[in-house]
Write a structure and sequence with these properties.
The protein is mostly beta strands. It starts with a strand and ends with a strand. It contains no helices and ten strands. The strands form three sheets. A four-stranded antiparallel beta sheet has the order 3-10-8-5, with no helix packed on it. It has a four-stranded antiparallel beta sheet with strand order 7-6-4-9, with no helix packed on it. It has a two-stranded antiparallel ribbon with strand order 1-2.
Length: 121
């Protein structure tokens, strides 16, 4: 253990750091940003086709970009929308392969948590 004194904005703090050997530290590669799973589907305002998967909004915000249109073919992980929430841009990704139908938002639209963004059949 090593002790240090650190001055932060005129306040002196005493900290203790543990010295580790290289063997004790596990190296990890930087991972991709975690995606937020969509909450359970709220009742869809647009009728979802049988077997279709509803893409819901995970948090309230504003749609900055709509990267798909009705009839677009998408793969799992494709970015469908960019949502601005809490001054951060969040990518809403496709949960499955399929074709977009029931697109219910446009660029600049304000959305609430659980709002249906589109349906993928």
């Amino acid at each position: 253990m090593k002790k240090y004194k650190v001055n932060v904005n005129g306040t002196v703090y005493e900290i203790t750091l543990e010295v580790c050997e290289a063997d004790d530290v596990t190296a990890s590669s930087p991972s991709a940003p975690a995606t937020v799973p969509a909450p359970a589907a709220a009742p869809a305002s647009a009728a979802a086709p049988a077997g279709g998967e509803t893409v819901s909004c995970p948090m309230p915000g504003t749609i900055l970009a709509v990267n798909v249109a009705n009839g677009s073919a998408v793969k799992k992980g494709d970015v469908l929308f960019v949502l601005e929430a809490m001054k951060m841009e969040n990518e809403i990704m496709s949960p499955c392969d399929g074709t977009v139908s029931g697109l219910s938002v446009t660029k600049g639209a304000s959305v609430d948590t659980g709002a249906t963004l589109c349906v993928i059949a």
